[in-house]
Amino acid sequence: MRDPLRMWPGLALVSLIAATSYGLIRMTGIGSYGVSALTLAILIGAVLGNLKPAIAGGRCQPGLAFAQKRLLRAGVALYGFNLSVQQIAQVGSAGIAIDVAMVVLTLAVGWWFGRHVLGMDRETVLLASAGSAICGAAAVMATLPMLQARDPHAAEKGTVAVATVVLFGTLAMLLYPLIYAWLGAGHFDFGIFVGSTVHEVAQVVAIGSTIGGDVAGNAVIAKMIRVMLLVPFLLLLGLSLRRADGQGRSAPLPIPWFALVFVAMAGVNSLQILPPALVDALRLIGMLLLTAAMASLGIDTRLSRMRQAGPRPLILGAGLFVHLIVIGGLVNWLAA
C-alpha cells in the first residue's frame, strides 16, 4: 500500500482541479464560448504551479506523474464512447475523405514547416501538429505518452502545444461565422468545413451553435471522425519513432493499448448494447480523467520554461491555422 498512499496527495489535488473545471463549465455557461474543461484545468494547474512551484516536486509528485500517464491513457480510452459508426455514416464518404485528407495534409505541413523552415525539435512539432490536425488538446495529451520516454521535457512541450491550440481555436470561433456570412452556404457543406478544420470539439460546437441549422450537426459529426483518426495516427507514430531512433526491427512496435481500447469502446457504443445512463457515466468518467491529466500537466508547467521555447511554436501554430482555413476551404470546395 506504500505507493498508492504516496500518490494520494497529488491525485487529490488534480481531482479537485478537474471537478472545479468541469463544474465551472457546466454551471457558468462559459462552455458556450468554446472553452473546454481540459483547457480550463491546464490553466488552473499552471497558475497554481507557478504560484507554488514546490507543489510539483513535493509530496504531490507521485500522484501527478500517475495522472500524466495512467489517468491520461484511461481517459483517452473512454473517450471512444463519444463516437459511433452511425455518426460516421451521416456525413458520407465525401465527408470522411475530407477529414482524412485534412489530417494527413496538416500533419505533413506541420512537420515540414516546423522542422525544415523553423528548425524546431521533433517533439514540439509532433505535439503541435497533432493538436491542429486531429482534436486539439485531447490529441496533444494522447500523443504525449508516446514521446515522454524519449524526452524528459515532453510535458512542458505539450503545454506549449495546448496553448497554441487554445489561442488559434479561439480565433477560429470569431473568424468562422464571419467567413460563413461572407461565403454563404452555396459553395460547400460549411459544417464539414468547420468540423474538418477547427481544433477543439468545444470550439466546433460553439461555431456550429452560432451559425445554426445543418451546419451545427454536420460540424460535430465531421469533428468526431477526425477524433477517430487519432488511433491510426498513434499507431503510425509509434512505428515511425522506432525507425527514427534506429531500432529498426530489433525492438517491438510500441502499440498504444489505450488507442485500441478507444476503438473498442467506439464499437461498443455503436452497437448500443449498454444502457444510455451507463454510457453517459462512462463519458463523464473519461472526461474527468482527461481533465485531471491536464491539471497535472499544468502544475508541471513553468512560465520560464515556456519562454525558453521562444516564438517558434506560436509561428508554427499560426502557420497551421492559416493552412486549415485556406487549404481546408480548397479541399472542401473541390470535394463538393
From TrEMBL:
<protein>
    <submittedName>
        <fullName>Conserved hypothetical integral membrane protein</fullName>
    </submittedName>
</protein>
<feature type="transmembrane region" description="Helical">
    <location>
        <begin position="33"/>
        <end position="51"/>
    </location>
</feature>
<dbReference type="InterPro" id="IPR004630">
    <property type="entry name" value="UPF0324_YeiH-like"/>
</dbReference>
<feature type="transmembrane region" description="Helical">
    <location>
        <begin position="95"/>
        <end position="113"/>
    </location>
</feature>
<feature type="transmembrane region" description="Helical">
    <location>
        <begin position="159"/>
        <end position="183"/>
    </location>
</feature>
<keyword id="KW-1003">Cell membrane</keyword>
<dbReference type="GO" id="GO:0005886">
    <property type="term" value="C:plasma membrane"/>
</dbReference>
<keyword id="KW-1133">Transmembrane helix</keyword>
<feature type="transmembrane region" description="Helical">
    <location>
        <begin position="125"/>
        <end position="147"/>
    </location>
</feature>
<feature type="transmembrane region" description="Helical">
    <location>
        <begin position="281"/>
        <end position="301"/>
    </location>
</feature>
<dbReference type="InterPro" id="IPR018383">
    <property type="entry name" value="UPF0324_pro"/>
</dbReference>
<keyword id="KW-0472">Membrane</keyword>
<keyword id="KW-0812">Transmembrane</keyword>
<feature type="transmembrane region" description="Helical">
    <location>
        <begin position="253"/>
        <end position="275"/>
    </location>
</feature>
<comment type="similarity">
    <text>Belongs to the UPF0324 family.</text>
</comment>
<feature type="transmembrane region" description="Helical">
    <location>
        <begin position="224"/>
        <end position="241"/>
    </location>
</feature>
<feature type="transmembrane region" description="Helical">
    <location>
        <begin position="313"/>
        <end position="335"/>
    </location>
</feature>
<dbReference type="Pfam" id="PF03601">
    <property type="entry name" value="Cons_hypoth698"/>
</dbReference>
